[in-house]
Amino acid sequence: MKTKALLLLMSLLFLKEKSNAQLGMGKVEDIKKLQTMTLVVVLRKENPSTVKSLSKKPNELKNYRLNIEKYNKEFKLAMDSFWFYKQELKYVELPYDRWDRNAKKELEKELNSKEKDYAYIMQTASNYSFGTYDMEFYHRDVTGLKLSDLVVGFGDKSVPVGGTKLPFVDPSEADFIYGIQQIKTYFDFRLTKAEKSRKEAKAEYLQNAVKLKEKTLLVDKALLQNGLTEKEIKTVYPYLFKITDRAEIDQAIINRDDKYAYVQVVAIGASTAGRRSHGEAMHGGISVTKSSLTFFQYVIDAKDGSMLGYAGGGVKLAGFSGGDHEIKKKHFEDYSKLVKDSENK
Hints:
The chain has about 350 residues and is of the alpha/beta class. Helices cover about 35% and strands about 20% of the residues. It contains eleven helices and ten strands.
């Protein structure tokens, strides 16, 4: 099966943070149960303390509210079009970014019931708070460095059924789609109860890479190593590629465009030894830099979210030479080598 290797690799996404260590360990019975339940999609809601703190900063308050409006709209668009189980979706707005006692109580209040027979999907923050607007978020313009997950769980359990890392803490519709697709792939894998050795998984995974030969690889110019030129890339990567902006990549994902693949860079963990700023210490965040984060790079098929290539964590795995925040010449060499290796299988 073409996606099984992806799932074995996906489990690595949850090894870098103790709090998320079990995100990739959903039980088969829980996944089956999930399909029969109402799924509460947790959207954002204004945090009263944030509104109060921005009361004398009208422009920031306006942006804060616009960001919430945009977030809710794009999360809903992604769920309506890409959620993969036929179940009722119920949209509820909460001023929280973690599944804790307060969030649970507020959600039950919104549902007008204390019944626990529901499931939820929400974005959770690893090192930031929705209620602290001026913190250094890992924005889509790559100006900050923070971590977040998209998780699925049950109302009566604290540990999620499954989830995946998101590339940005303020995700677009396309970022939510990416997250949904990775959760689907993981659930599909768990339901097959298949067990494969690393060698077998790598062999299957290599078969997917040959698709790159027929696709245009979209590369976000904001993530490309500074100074790396198209001419240099062509010396090591003989297939079609395009250096572009995130908007074009987003459209390829939303349109499920079979002509394209794209490079996705995801931060999956951070050193907790970083020094905390005053604001971050108050909200439990940690001060991180690019050097203290672990990044994984994926080559993703825009058609269905399947993985065509992989690099991560500074460890050579499946033909790739380690994960970096920047997309470098060595990564294009790896992509090319992986295609050639898959042709020889």
